[in-house]
Amino acid sequence: MLQDNFMSFQRFRYAKWAIALLVLCIALYVLDNPPIKPGGGTVLGYGLGTLGALLIVFLLLLGMRKRAYASRMGTLRGWLSAHVYLGLALAVVATLHCGFEFGWNIHTFAYALTMAVIISGIWGVVLYLHQPSLMSDRLDGRTLDQIAQDLRDLDDRCRLLAQDRPTLLALVEESSGAQIFSLRRQRLTGRNRHCATARVLARLRVVGDQADASSNEIYTLQFRRLQQLKRIRSYVRQRTLTEIWLLFHVPMSIALLVALTAHIVSVFFYW
Fold first, then answer.
1. Structural domain of residue 187, as residue ranges?
2. What is the secondary structure of the chain as a DSSP string?
3. pLDDT the model gives residue 206
4. How many domains is the chain partitioned into structurally?
5. What is the pLDDT of residues 160-218, one digit of tens each?
6. Which of 37, 124, 140, 255 is the most buried (most CB within 10 A)?
């Protein structure tokens, strides 16, 4: 059974559209027999260029659609699916438009930016497919604040169990002060080698066979706490990678729009 996500939206509707578009463009390119060398200066070249420009504008509209919460122009998942598949199709359309001719000019620069944006977009797709919760800012259907409250509840239960045991209570307090990340760079790895909860679990494990019921329950609760921390760290790592991706993808998309405008203006100026 196919996993239900933006890639398989409505039985791959936009994948089929993109494939049909590519088949049409490639067929026209193969059958075209212009009086001059194939490229952007032929009738077909202008047609493919217009199509490519329209695709770029459509792809840029996703940013506006994401902020139009009350919009009735299709679901956000549908827009994202179309964004991905038509963005991939754009790579072929742009290449056919230029007729595989490149040089040191604004036209090739616009083409290079198009490819760079598409490649960075593929990176974003991989991130979202690997961690679907990034799309809803939730982890297992809950917000990070809700998960943080779960951690506080675990800490309170451990304190209650260790209230008459100073040694155990000190360990519980040490664990409750554990930071999700002790260093900023750990956001990229999703790990904290100096995690206080992990240290406390190791020390409770040493007590092991000599522990009473309260100690065993504290150990179980601390184990659950560590698992929650690991899940948060993994999620934050993915969020950090997504933020880094956006630092590349969004500015390059804006630069592409500027380069596309310059490309179009120069074409009509010298036409």
1. 144-239
2. ----SGGGHHHHHHHHHHHHHHHHHHHHHHH---SS-SSTTSHHHHHHHHHHHHHHHHHHHHHHHHH-TT--SS-HHHHHHHHHHHHHHHHHHHHHHHTT---SSHHHHHHHHHHHHHHHHHHHHHHHHH-GGGGTT-BTTB-HHHHHHHHHHHHHHHHHHTTT-HHHHHHHHHHHT--S-SSGGGGTTT--TT-HHHHHHHHHHHHGGG--HHHHHHHHHHHHHHHHHHHHHHHHHHHHHHHHHHHHHHHHHHHHHHHHHHHHHHHHHH-
3. 75
4. 2
5. 988 888 888 898 998 888 777 655 666 666 566 778 888 888 888 876 555 577 788 98
6. 124
